[in-house]
Write a structure and sequence with these properties.
CATH class of the domain at 178-301: Mainly Beta
Largest sheet: 4 strands, antiparallel
Radius of gyration: 30 Å
Number of strands: 12
Helix content: 40-55%
CATH architecture of the domain at 178-301: Roll
Number of helices: 16
Order of helices and strands: HEEHEHHHHEEEEEEEHEEHHHHHHHHH
Structural class: alpha+beta
Distance between the termini: 57 Å
CATH topology of the domain at 178-301: PH-domain like
Shape: elongated
Strand order of the largest sheet: 4-5-6-7
Length: about 550
Amino acid sequence: LQRDAKGQYLFDLLCHHLNLLEKDYFGIRFVDPDKQRHWLEFTKSVVKQMRAQPPFTMCFRVKFYPTDPAALKEEITRYLVFLQIKRDLYHGRLLCKTSDAALLAAYILQAEIGDYDPGKHPEGYSSKFQFFPKHSEKLERKIAEIHKSELSGQTPATSELNFLRKAQTLETYGVDPHPCKDVSGNAAFLAFTPFGFVVLQGNKRVHFIKWNEVTKMKFEGKTFYLYVSQKEEKKIVLTYFAPTPEACKHLWKCGIENQAFYKLEKSSQVRTVSSSNLFFKGSRFRYSGRVAKEVMESSAKIKREPPEIHRAGLVPSRSCPSITHGPRLSSVPRTRRRAVHISIMEGLESLRDSAHSTPVRSASHGDAFAAPGRSGRAESSERVAVIADENYSPADSVLPTPVAEHSLELMLLSRQANGAPCSIEEEKESEAGTPAAAEAEEAGGELRALCPGAGGLGAAQAEQVNKFVLSVLRLLLVTVGLLFVLLLLLIVLTESDLDTAFFRDIRQTPEFEQFHYQYFCPLRRWFACKVRAVVSLLIDT
């Protein structure tokens, strides 16, 4: 990749490799050394956006969820959206009841392994898939029952289409949650969907605001403001607090992009947005892509032969692996599975207060899940975490995204303990980013242990200096502009023949007459004398 290559070049290269035309729904995500997620900006250099050292680890993700995924023109697009939603289901972002969860998982089974075959699929075959953050044997039996009796004969494409249609009806379809706190200090998750702005607390949606009701979004430091104008001219300002200023800025930029994509009629209506009312203060950002209506119109014009989809040839999703990749946690004995889950959660506890914008388990949820394992291991083995009939929380995800290095090791060790091979593709897919060679890992391990995050320290300081310099330059520019406007006004007052009431009143004041005769006229004569001297000097030479 050339050093000055823009993000658009990399994205187009990737979409060409995937044979993808309906590419406006997707984006490239990366994580900085502070575990903060970012979307790659297509108008900027790729290298300049990366604060880490190469090699860079980036992930292809759905950035704007289609309003109606079943209406997508090409099967390859629907398949990629299916993979993303399947991943959302596994990470606990797609909230659903047990009945809906069983149906969605059954669609995934049908797409992955086809029709039920007693000779190939023994008792408990559905347990070899990890569809959700938590499983129960009752749920696994329900999944297998639906797969056996209701989905026979469906092709992978049909199962994926039915999966998308069902997922679209759920309240949290398209949710990419950002952890925040409200004004009372209560934990909340903010998200932007195809239909509007959503606030989740616990397992409930406490706010839903349509895009046409959102009038403005801005942030100051860690504080995010959402201005809402509802019916009867009722205006509301929602205030939330992000973990870090960087997380708040990321939240603000995601909101600006989602509102522009789903709300506007044309991309020509997109305007540069400032996070502050003052010109020389705050961040400025502009969405650079097409809007949803333009994307749908463009998709309708696609007339090529549908590209062939090699489902088995793509890298298996870490979220829902194929059966051939060995048993998952749910396939081992209940007591052993319980211990492995507890060990993973103990490793993830240090991430609870991370600035990462993907929700990890909060203190309340984490304690509720891990405490029974610590204090009551002698209790009945039937007490395992399951998806209840009510919605489960995004904070219940066992695998936050991206996986930190130490938690990834715990996950891989637990899989090895259960007899599951750890594929190279899964390690590469980790968003935390690891060195390419084992030698580099060993050589740099001690240095990284002594200086965590040092790779991006200089870049962070340089970025802060650049922001300060830009603020000073904006302030100087505004000051010079104001002085220039005042000078023009002064010249009009003293030299022009305009006789409006406004100018006449100013000219008749004693202060203006004193300024005109004692200061302005001598200054004008001095300036004219200097100009004549310079002109005569130029003529003589």
